[in-house]
């Protein structure tokens, strides 16, 4: 199924300025793989670590979190600091 993903502002330059993209994915793992495949410029950022928020909840490390077309999904660069 297709899901719509909102991109954090720092990631938009890697998709030609798009604020939202649509990919085929049924889980967070499939989402990340589809984004890296369909938007190769995102692959290094995804490999370095990103956060996925689904309906306002950060999915910390689960790649099996189910997704559906009605979910509000955001892809964000992982925040680093000390």
TrEMBL record:
It comes from the Bacteria. Pfam families: ThiS (PF02597). InterPro entries: Beta-grasp_dom_sf, Mopterin_synth/thiamin_S_b, ThiS/MoaD-like. This is MoaD/ThiS family protein. It comes from Parasedimentitalea psychrophila.
